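Progress note, sequence design subtask.
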């Protein structure tokens, strides 16, 4: 493979091939899957924003991805149940509205899914292009393909890149904002300042976790000025470094304020549009109800007051979303993790889930790059008073790398500290930077001192082919993908579930299974955004929960359950976490004892897709 910087047709053709393969895999996978859990709330919310300019649904997430995903639906003759009490009187009745809109209003749910997933797929492909554009600045045309290849064909990206959720949008937003901000720092101008502000505003409209960009921008600006001051000191300039640092820092802070104000204006405009027809009285009532237990109370009251005025209600809705995220974060997220259930969170959750779900081939690439980085750090450390000059040179020459490294570290530290363990998807914003940094390290390693160039190139090529093979083999079960360390896609549920394995994507496959086996009645304990009765039939599917007891008592001989639900009801609980008796499957574990080889779950008679276990119970004795 020729990794020279000479411009050829190889780079654009290869990038186009990655985009075609990535887009095809997402599109084909999407057509086989039912709605995942979060889409049940995001789809009706987005439709409400796009068609009615009303933000009463799903305020805990920014509107951009949801609204743009819903735009293609405006071309369809759909019935949106605005006459329902869930819309008129309910407070954020997003789940009920989702069920009504998709499954109980005479609409074609699969057609709706097909249309709304177009934009997420396009946004994912745009993010791949953005990864390449940013990477080539550090690596050149050909080497810049490797990070784009790793991102575009990542099982995690392919899994979440076609869903109407905020995760891939956050990855796009982070990358766009960082690129625009670094370009502004390197070459300040009015146009670049405006571009940085707009990019930051777009990022803030994708997911509330992008708020981390604000303190990051402040820190990075000061680091940039520090580098300038150090270089001034050793360039023979008579100006005192400290005075220069203070003067330039104040100037940068002033520019940052302008960037933040532009971002706020972008946020305001989008929220003003999406709240335009949200009645003030309704918004006040909803805000007050949602924040009734918010602490501190004065903050909740302040947001409610802002909701009472046409001019400030867009800001009120934005602040409401942030407040809801804070509420949810403090309450944790009940999850199954490494054999037990808890809502307290685990500090090592994200490192473990990343090691189990990231392909081993890319872990090796990242590992090689990390080792090379540590070698350079210890040989030529830029730290210490005697080496301040080297630090200044490093920040001047490699500031882009420094920004990416800091972004990854900040985001990972924030994630580890949080008790909201929601899945590897939460780490998506860091993947572009991880892949670019890894490729920078690999490139330096291969070039090195000119030795062993051939076998190093062969090794990297082999790892890239392995990576591609892993991705192809995972099709179409990208959401449930686990690497060899995690037991592979078939066994990943033994370690971690929820959106890492089971988000409700296999319900359509269960409908096919029921028809093929001519099952007349089946109890379904389903976790996801689909509706069992819609896909299996009203007379065939019976909604089930642990509290309903043994289905055989009602003459039902078949039982299907999402693996996420089974783990949550059967797995041991962490000390201090109490599970209600009505949420356990005692009758089931007595009927069919748990199997250690099945991760502590009763062995199923059939598996549908990866995430639904089916049991033939037989007649009650």
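Output:
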């Amino acid at each position: 493979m020729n990794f020279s910087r000479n411009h050829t047709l190889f780079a654009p053709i290869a990038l186009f091939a990655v985009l075609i393969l990535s887009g095809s895999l997402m599109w084909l996978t999407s057509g086989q899957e039912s709605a995942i859990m979060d889409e049940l709330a995001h789809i009706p919310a987005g439709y409400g924003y796009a068609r009615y300019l009303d933000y009463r649904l799903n305020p805990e997430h920014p509107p951009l991805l949801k609204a743009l995903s819903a735009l293609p639906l405006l071309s369809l003759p759909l019935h949106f149940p605005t006459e329902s009490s869930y819309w008129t009187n309910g407070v954020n009745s997003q789940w009920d509205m989702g069920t009504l809109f998709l499954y109980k209003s005479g609409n074609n749910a699969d057609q709706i899914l097909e249309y709304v997933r177009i934009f997420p797929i396009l946004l994912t492909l745009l993010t791949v292009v953005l990864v390449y554009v940013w990477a080539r600045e550090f690596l050149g045309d050909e080497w810049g393909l490797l990070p784009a290849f790793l991102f575009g064909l990542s099982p995690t990206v392919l899994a979440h890149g076609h869903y109407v959720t905020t995760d891939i949008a956050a990855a796009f937003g982070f990358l766009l904002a960082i690129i625009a901000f670094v370009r502004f720092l390197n070459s300040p101008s009015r146009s670049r300042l405006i571009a940085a502000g707009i990019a930051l505003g777009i990022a803030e409209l994708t997911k509330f976790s992008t708020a981390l960009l604000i303190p990051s921008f402040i820190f990075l600006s000061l680091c940039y000025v520090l580098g300038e001051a150090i270089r001034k000191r050793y360039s023979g300039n008579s100006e005192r470094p400290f005075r220069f640092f203070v003067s330039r820092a104040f100037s940068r802070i002033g520019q940052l304020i302008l960037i933040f104000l532009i971002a706020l204006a972008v946020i305001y405009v989008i929220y003003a549009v999406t709240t335009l027809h949200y009645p003030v009285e309704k918004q006040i009532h909803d805000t007050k109800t949602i924040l009734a237990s918010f602490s501190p109370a004065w903050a909740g009251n302040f947001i409610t007051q802002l909701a009472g005025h046409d001019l400030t209600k867009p800001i009120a809705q934005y602040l409401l979303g942030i407040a809801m995220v804070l509420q949810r974060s403090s309450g944790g997220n009940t999850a199954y993790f490494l054999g037990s259930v808890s809502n307290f969170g685990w500090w090592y959750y994200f490192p473990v889930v990343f090691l189990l779900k990231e392909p081993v081939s890319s872990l090796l690439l990242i590992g090689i790059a990390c080792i090379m980085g540590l070698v350079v750090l210890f040989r030529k450390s830029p730290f210490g008073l005697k080496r301040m000059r080297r630090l200044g040179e490093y920040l001047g020459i490699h500031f882009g790398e420094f920004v990416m490294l800091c972004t990854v570290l900040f985001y990972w530290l924030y994630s580890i500290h949080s008790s909201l363990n929601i899945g590897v998807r939460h780490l998506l914003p860091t993947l572009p930077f991880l892949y670019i940094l890894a490729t920078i390290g690999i490139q330096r390693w291969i070039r090195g001192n000119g030795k062993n160039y051939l076998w190093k190139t062969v090794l990297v090529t082999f790892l890239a082919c392995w990576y591609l093979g892993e991705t192809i083999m995972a099709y179409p079960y990208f959401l449930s993908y686990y690497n060899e360390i995690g037991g592979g896609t078939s066994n990943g549920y033994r370690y971690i579930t929820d959106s890492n394995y089971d988000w409700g994507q296999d319900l359509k496959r269960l409908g096919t299974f029921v028809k093929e086996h001519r099952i007349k009645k089946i109890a379904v304990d389903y976790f996801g955004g689909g509706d069992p009765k819609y896909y299996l039939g009203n007379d065939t599917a019976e909604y089930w929960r642990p509290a309903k007891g043994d289905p055989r008592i009602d003459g039902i001989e078949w039982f299907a359950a999402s693996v996420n639900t089974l783990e949550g009801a059967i797995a041991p609980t962490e000390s201090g976490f109490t599970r209600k008796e009505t949420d356990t499957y005692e009758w089931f574990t007595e009927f069919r004892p748990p199997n250690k080889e099945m991760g502590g779950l009763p062995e199923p008679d059939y598996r549908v897709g990866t995430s639904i276990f089916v049991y033939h119970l037989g007649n009650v004795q």
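The chain is about 60% helix and 5% strand. Work on this subtask will continue into the next period as scheduled.
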